[in-house]
Specification:
Layout (H helix, E strand, L loop, with lengths): L2 H11 L5 H9 L3 H22 L2 H16 L3 H18 L3 H14 L2 H10 L2 H19 L3 H19 L2
Helix pairs in contact: 3-5, 3-6, 3-8, 3-9, 4-5, 4-8, 5-6, 8-9
């Protein structure tokens, strides 16, 4: 289900016909707001992926991690980093979570967010994030729910601290 369909459903359920206002408010969220939401949702998504991911899902997540690790520039890394996180959400088999990830991804591609990343995401920091991604993949592949949840939490705390030193 697409983001616009979900927002239309939300608007209809709430008796609101102006879904555009909701979408504008969501996409106008600050990078700090996005990171705080991710800290709440994404560790749980990683834990859910442990239970619901197929072998093919795990292979795809691992491939996205490998591709992110192989990138020489921030734009390439950002693409594969986004794919890595999207695939974890997808592995949950939860349409609502996947739609929330789509909304967060739209926000992560906004100029305000990208300026912060370009200012703070160094080669060393990308390498650190990739090491954390490897730990997340390992925990999902080993079906370690607590490990996946904690590894994702630690990763997002690193991202938050890296973006807002």
């Amino acid at each position: 289900m697409s983001v616009s369909k979900i927002l239309q459903s939300v608007g209809a359920a709430a008796g609101t016909t102006d879904v555009g206002v909701i979408l504008q408010r969501l996409t106008g969220a600050s990078p700090m707001d996005v990171m705080n939401v991710r800290l709440i949702i994404e560790p749980q998504a990683a834990a859910a992926a442990v239970s619901n991911a197929t072998g093919a899902d795990i292979d795809a997540i691992r491939h996205a991690h490998d591709m992110a690790e192989a990138q020489d520039d921030l734009d390439g890394f950002e693409h594969w980093d986004g794919e890595f996180h999207r695939l974890i959400y997808s592995a949950t088999r939860n349409d609502l979570l996947m739609s929330l990830e789509e909304i967060l991804d739209v926000i992560r591609k906004r100029p305000q967010w990208l300026r912060i990343k370009h200012a703070h995401v160094t080669v060393a920091r990308r390498q650190h994030y990739c090491r954390q991604h490897a730990e997340i993949v390992t925990n999902i592949a080993n079906r370690n729910t607590n490990g996946a949840q904690e590894a994702m939490h630690q990763h997002l705390v690193s991202v938050l601290n890296g973006m807002f030193p």
